[in-house]
Task: structure prediction
Amino acid sequence: MAISVLDQLKEHTIVVADTGNFESIKQYAPRDATTNPSLILKASKQQEYASLVEQVINSAKLNGINDVDQIMDLLLVQFGLSILNVVPGRVSTEVDARLSFDYDASLEKARSIISLYEENGVSRDRILIKLASTWEGVEVSKVLEQEGIHTNMTLLFSLVQAVACAEAGSQLISPFVGRILDWHRKEYGKEFLGVEDPGVQSVIQIFNYYKKFGYPTEVMGASFRNTGEIKELVGCDLLTVGPNLLEEMQNDFSLIEVKLDASIAKNSTIEKMEINESSFRFILNEDAMATEKLAEGIRKFSADVKALEQLLKDLIFS
Result:
């Protein structure tokens, strides 16, 4: 009997659903799920989730909570709780992107999110706090990991960001494959296929670096544009994939093979990087793609946080 690409992939890599849609998560049976402000905003506007949003707002009102920021945290956690009823593993919940350069506020927000989960009887082992991979985000991750609060470092576009996260002891990183490809398509006006895809190459480089130097931080490729990218990363620790590509792989019965291998990575010739805050900032600044995509990502997530706030305000005060 033919085996789908999705099922073949699951034999070598942990598959994570990149969505806030519970039905999609059920359909493709991933181990974990990730969310971000864009996905939660999209889901919150859909009729099937109207009752969940309404439930959060009504509960907040009953408890005398009228602060939109607090209510938004309650909404994000409620989505997370609903997802945890579907997946056997972990869910990622993101810290407000507008705090990406604010160490103290990000740390406070992360602790607050974990407290909300724990108040609902969920162990912190099942939660990953998503932080932008700025220097401030890396420093927050270091503190949180020491407190047993695990982190998913997002908006990651370069090796220097990945190394900083590994040195901080971050649980997991999410290199954004598709957004790296987007930049190179626009910059060079051509298509990149297969292993020539610069987003794919970035994940391979990071994976090999981590395995060569023995970092336990998990590598989770993210933000895919096509299944070809996914097929080039079979063997990566985890891959987080949107519903459209999950469906495509479920209906694809071609053979795939392992491309990333920790034992081979240990023999790679990559050299170890020694970084501190100043070198991190300089090396990142020298990488036009990573600098631009990090800034753009923070702006986009921030805009969606603002839109989600406005949606809640409209519902609260209507």
In short: The mean pLDDT is 95.
